[in-house]
Amino acid sequence: MRVVTRLDAGPSFSTDMPEELGGSGDRISPGWLLRAGLASCLTTRIAMAAAVEGIELEAIEVMASSRSDARGLLGMPGGAGEPIGPGPFDVTLQVRICAPGIPPERLRALVEYSQTHSPVSAALSEPVTISLSVEAI
Fold first, then answer.
1. Which of 82, 83, 105, 134 is deepest in the core (most CB within 10 A)?
2. Are 78 and 23 in contact, with CB atoms under 8 Å apart?
3. Which residue pairs, CB below 8 angstroms and at least 24 apart, start in 104-110?
4. Residue 1 within any structural domain of the chain
5. Which domain holds residue 89?
6. Region for 120 from its dihedrals, namely left if φ exceeds 0, alpha if ψ lies in -120 to 50, beta otherwise
7. Is the dihedral of CA 60, 117, 35, 4 positive or negative?
8. Does residue 130 form part of some domain?
9. Is residue 58 part of a domain?
10. What CATH number is attached to the domain comprising 112?
């Protein structure tokens, strides 16, 4: 269940699944990477928007969480036989942001604007075509 991913001429990292899904559980999971990418992208986008508006941020924290049903990953139906998708049912982003002297409404608007202009958020919230090419040898 362990997978090593490498950049062309750069670092590599390993992922694994939790023990209950057949992995060793000693590495991050692909789903964790998805949530980390979502949080990281939003954090970066907030910092960019703040810089454009001349807002000096003291702190930004973004936590991403999701809910899913492992039966979908395993191709199992729900209790009434209905299909269950393999992806998350929902994703929640919690943002803590601090910029002394800036009204909370302005910071909230900055975060909301940034969310609508975050490429990773867009990839999850808007349908994206995924092309698959398979070379079986």
1. 83
2. no
3. 106/55, 107/55, 110/46, 110/49, 110/50, 110/53, 110/55
4. no
5. 32-125
6. alpha
7. negative
8. no
9. yes
10. 3.30.300.20
State if pTM tops 0.85: yes
Cβ within 8 Å of residue 45, ≥6 positions away: 114, 115, 117, 118
Taking each helix axis from N to C end, the angle separating 104-116 and 30-52, rounded to the nearest 10 degrees, works out to: 120
In a domain, 44, yes or no: yes
- Please give the tally of structural domains in the chain: 1
Q: What is the pLDDT of residues 72-82, one digit of tens each?
A: 999 999 999 99
Give the pLDDT confidence of 100-116 residue by residue, as tens digits: 999 999 999 999 999 99
